[in-house]
Amino acid sequence: MNSDSFLVPIYFLTPVLLLILGFISGKAAEHFHFARLKIKEEELSSIMMCNMKTIPTNWKLDRAFLVSGSVVIANDYFKTFAATLRNLIGGRMRSYEALLERGRREAIVRMLEEARNGSANAVWNVRLATSPIQAEQTGRSSGIELLAFGTALRAS
Amino acid sequence: MIVVNTESVPGLPILEVKGLVQGNTVRAKHVGRDIAASFKNIFGGELRGYTELLTEARREALGRMLRQAQAIGANAVVNVRFATSSITSGAAELYAYGTAVVVDTPTPDS
User: Fold this and answer.
1) Which pLDDT tens digit goes with each residue over B57-102?
2) Which of B10, B44, B55 has the CB atom closest to A55's CB atom?
């Protein structure tokens, strides 16, 4: 009998186990993240956001400073696998859409929190940037960075 | 030093444009963070180690840009932009650039 034969079930079971683990924990993480985002966005809704460069001239401002928020976020094993399959057929990659939405909203929330700490009432010229982090040997990226930045304004 | 990403500092007229200033840094986390991040690829969620890495790298790049602005005698940097690019596995380059200017009256807070 081959001495390696006991390894065969491990080869097959490990990916299956990872898929199940990824599916459950990824679903939970996404659910709680969206719930948390909703609360924080409500809290910060008093701060006005705009991506215009020019500031209304009739505003009396006593402070302007740069604020930024960033987050690096990764998909779970199951969603990465599902996306690989989707790549064969083509079409909407829902799992990545949700990931980017979470990341972008989180980055904006962090930016607004920084603005609130400086008691600003508006953030002007908001810019959003996305970049993949860590291109692995396999070629797929393990994380996506989302960055939001802008000029926080405090009106007197 | 006033740092904004609008084209002018609100309420303070620009007296003099000193030119482009820039700062960059390439950073990596220790292997423990990289391993932790690869686990996050199974479970999904935020890669805190990398968020931290990029936040401090961005601060570093911004700091270098500000030092450059100070050296040429500016008291504000307007139109600041950030760029990130991944160089190799687990490392990222952060780049900050803006226009150094001299504005009329500097506010007490930076």
Assistant:
1) 999 999 999 999 999 999 999 999 998 887 766 677 889 999 999 9
2) B10
Contacts of B99 by beta carbon, 8 Å cutoff, 6+ apart? B17, B18, B19, B20, B21, B77, B78, B79
Confirm if A37 and A106 have CB atoms less than 8 A apart: yes
Q: Do A68 and B7 touch (CB under 8 A)?
A: no
The reply to whether residue B86 touches residue A134, judged by beta carbons under 8 angstroms, is yes
Of A29, A57, A36, A5, the C-alpha closest to B6 is A57
Cβ within 8 Å, pair A53-B54: no
Q: Is the pTM of this model over 0.95?
A: no
ipTM > 0.85 (yes/no) = no
Contacts of A102 (CB under 8 A, 6+ apart): A30, A33, A34, A37, A73
